[in-house]
Specification:
Layout: E1 5-11, H1 15-26, E2 31-35, H2 43-46, E3 50-51, H3 62-72, E4 79-81, H4 83-88, H5 90-98, H6 105-129, E5 136-137, E6 141-145, H7 150-162, E7 168-171, H8 172-178, E8 188-192, E9 196-198, H9 201-214, E10 218-221, E11 224-230, E12 233-238, E13 241-250, H10 256-260, E14 270-281, E15 291-293, E16 298-302, E17 307-310, E18 313-315, H11 325-335, E19 340-354, E20 361-364, E21 371-375, H12 381-396
Parallel strand pairs: 1-2, 1-13, 2-10, 4-18, 6-15, 13-21
Antiparallel strand pairs: 3-9, 5-9, 6-8, 7-8, 11-12, 12-13, 14-17, 14-18, 14-19, 15-16, 16-17, 20-21
Helix pairs in contact: 1-9, 1-12, 6-12
The chain binds flavin-adenine dinucleotide.
Flavin-adenine dinucleotide binds near residues 350 and 382.
């Protein structure tokens, strides 16, 4: 048995785990961060890199009901679903849909607004401290419609305005002025002007991890096999050894539910899988910011390697075989908006970890002192990682978290 007891072991070095580890270390705790891969190699690598001030409306909102008939055909680029998975996870599907009613929008929007606001502040500070300031763009994020969607855009704008989030309604000419190199296919746009984006989310997470080790944190590469309560402390069993800690933070993203099963927790997590493919940019035709094509159901982000096209949601088992149907649908549409060259590298697949209310779990595990849960950050985990970690570190240290964490309490689903 190792002699030393560390204050905190953080499991998982995605954006959430790295942020937690850094925030705990910044509070003077001794911290070990463990991942089987390099930091920022999984979901936190392959996302669209948007640090979004405006993503306060969860995906399960009343517009989902309207869209449901077209999604049921299982041909839409926004959502593909596996009927066998849906039957096996009917409870999750029912709870997810139950949260799509109008009365459930504002409480969750308010909760996410607090989390996102605190995160944006931290990202902007940390990215400079981590010497990765050149990776952030303060050019906003454009949601754009091909059809006549002024009413839909205005409705989104009104919700953002309720929370003091600035946005600009754009017509075709305004869009061309903002993005002069794209084909003018969009009639209506909503610019989330307070949103930032990065040119490599994986590299940003790696830079934050270097900031953690630079501050005296201990980063270890190993497979976490189990966590075992051990006389008021925790024994973290790794493939190549053990660590004894006062506190353990589970920040394993879509793998978080696996490790908690042996402690009797059944986490209602689904996996909103998504894909990306990158393409060589055409230097004469560049994107200035990420564009969300609302009718085409895809996103395009200018990245370090090229234009990254990300797909909609595929609801199925986390480890089920890949299907490229959604990407096949949207890549030709993206090519019709901006010229780009051949594909670079392989198609990437990741899983957005999602709980039925689309809010993450941030807080203590109900039945185990010293066990902390930090996962379920769904579509906006790259955005919300920093403040997820900062709140966990504050709570471990006995300090108030930087925003209201009550809506994220794990005991809303776990007992
Ligand atoms: C297509 C797509 C686009 C997205 N776009 C955006 C966006 O633009 N903006 C945004 O804010 N969010 C976006 N997201 C969501 C965001 O990427 C995720 O919510 C976020 O990355 C989750 O971070 P995480 O740290 O919880 O998980 P992860 O990044 O997956 O980290 C979990 C870590 O746990 C490690 N791990 C797992 N099991 C073990 C084990 N047994 N032992 C050791 N290590 C283990 C993994 O190696 C991994 O590094 C997108 C997601 C997808 C799929």
């Amino acid at each position: 048995m190792p002699e030393e007891t560390v204050d905190v072991v953080v499991l998982g070095a995605g954006i959430v785990g790295v942020a937690t580890a850094y925030a705990a270390r910044a509070r003077g705790m001794s911290v070990v961060l463990v991942d089987r891969r390099e930091p920022g190699s999984e979901t936190s690598y392959g996302n669209a890199g948007i640090i979004s001030s405006g993503s306060i409306s969860p995906l399960n909102n009343p517009s989902l009901w309207k869209a449901l008939p077209k999604y049921l055909t299982n041909r839409h680029a926004a959502l593909r679903w596996n009927p066998v998975w849906a039957a096996q996870n009917a409870g999750w599907v029912a709870r997810f849909l139950a949260n799509s009613v109008g009365s459930r929008v504002r409480p969750r929007a308010a909760a996410l607004h607090g989390l996102i606001g605190a995160s944006l502040k931290l990202h902007r500070e940390w990215i400079v401290q981590a010497k990765a300031g050149h990776r952030i763009r303060e050019t906003g994020w454009l949601k754009a419609w091909r059809g006549d969607a002024v009413a839909a855009a205005k409705q989104e704008q009104a919700l953002l305005a309720e929370y003091g989030i600035a946005s600009e309604l754009l017509d075709r000419q305004d869009i061309s002025a903002l993005e002069p190199d794209i084909v003018p296919v969009y009639k209506v746009g909503l610019l989330n002007s307070q949103t930032a984006s990065v040119d490599s989310p994986g590299e940003v997470v790696k830079a934050y991890a270097r900031m953690f080790t630079g501050a005296g944190g201990d980063l270890r590469q190993s497979d976490v096999k189990a966590i075992v309560p051990d006389g008021g402390r925790w024994r973290v069993v790794l493939a190549d050894g053990e660590i004894i800690a006062r506190h353990v933070v589970v920040a394993l993203g879509p793998w978080s539910s696996d490790i908690l099963r042996s402690l009797g927790y059944r986490v209602p997590m689904a996996f909103e899988r998504g894909y990306h493919r990158e393409f060589k940019p055409n230097p004469a035709r560049s994107l200035r910011r990420p564009i969300h094509d609302a009718d085409g159901s895809f996103l395009m982000t200018p990245m370090e390697q090229g234009v990254r096209v990300t797909s909609g949601v595929e609801l199925t088992g986390r480890d089920a075989p890949s299907s490229f149907a959604q990407l096949d649908q949207v890549v030709p549409l993206a090519r019709g908006v901006v010229e780009f060259g051949d594909a670079v590298g392989e198609i990437w697949r990741g899983s957005r970890p999602t709980l039925p209310d689309s809010l993450p779990m941030i807080g203590p595990a109900p039945r185990h002192a010293g066990l902390w849960l930090a996962f379920g950050n769904q579509h906006i985990g790259f955005t919300t990682g920093p403040a997820t970690g900062a709140a966990i570190a504050a709570m471990i240290g006995g300090a108030p978290p930087p925003y209201d964490v009550a809506p994220f309490a794990p005991d809303r689903y776990l007992s």
